[in-house]
Known about the structure:
92 residues, alpha+beta, 32% strand, elongated
Amino acid sequence: MRIIGHIDHPTLKITVFKMDNKLSVKFETGLYEQTFKFRESNELTDFTTVDKLVDAQFVQEVMENFARMHRVKNEALGRFLPEAGAEFEEIV
């Protein structure tokens, strides 16, 4: 797998990879990442075509997925970890 380019974005790191006949787009922010894989075709062949594919609506939906991932992680941690403050007396 090799990096064929980066797509500029103010808050996300967006990297485009190519391996065999697949193109991958990886979005990263903080502790989260999402990767979308596409089969290479006549229309989707290189970095330039992937850059056109990753439009504003695509990025907006990725951002919504990151928000959902964050919520799911925090809810799971809330169920897993004991309630904060349950072990300590309240100091006035």
